[in-house]
Amino acid sequence: MQMRNIIILIAAIIISFVAGFFIGDATAINGVNKAINQSTSNATTETNSTGNTSNSKEENKKYKFGEEGKSGNWSIKVLDSQETTTVQAGNSSDNKTTQQKFIVIKLQMTDTDTLPHQYSTNEFILGNTKDKKQYNVSLDALQAANQKETIYNQNGEFFGVYDDINPNIPKQTYVVFEVPKDFNTWYK
What we know:
By secondary structure, the chain is an alpha+beta fold. It has a single domain, classed as Immunoglobulin-like (Sandwich), CATH 2.60.40. 26% of the residues lie in helices and 32% in strands. The protein has helices spanning 2-23, 25-37, 139-152; strands at 43-47, 53-59, 69-71, 74-87, 96-111, 125-127, 134-136, 171-179. Strands 3-4-5-8 form a four-stranded antiparallel β-sheet, with helices on both faces. Strands 1-2 form a two-stranded antiparallel sheet. A two-stranded antiparallel ribbon has the order 6-7. A hairpin with a 2-residue loop joins strand 3 (69-71) and strand 4 (74-87). The radius of gyration is 17 Å and the shape is globular. It starts with a helix and ends in a 9-residue tail after the last strand.
């Protein structure tokens, strides 16, 4: 039962990334709300210059934990997720703590374009499928987790939010959300 909830959580994150990438900040929330409220995949529609609607190539699709998904110029796979009250940084004085809790998601991302790109924290939203509330990335906690790997551990497999990633080279990153203590990632 827990795996099902992780899959739904991951699907919400990937759908949010797609919506944020294509629609933009202002309308991304509306797109995410629609995607989360729908239990099946729907083709995105667009109106061409003659006023007709047609299906675009992108679809809102749910991916299983560990399954690679596509979003814009990115191929994304969720490798791990965990809950914690402290995100470890490279230097213990830089650790990030909360009285609530953090959801730490480890991703593998591959730039599928021909040019280097970086991702934006605005492209990720964590959605609670139970009450439909949405949570933005905790930038401080995200940076602490990624700097531990990139700077202190000198792990070349990781990249941070402001780092360009070259095409076709898979790299890992953490995306971190601060949520209330009672935020339940599992269905009961």
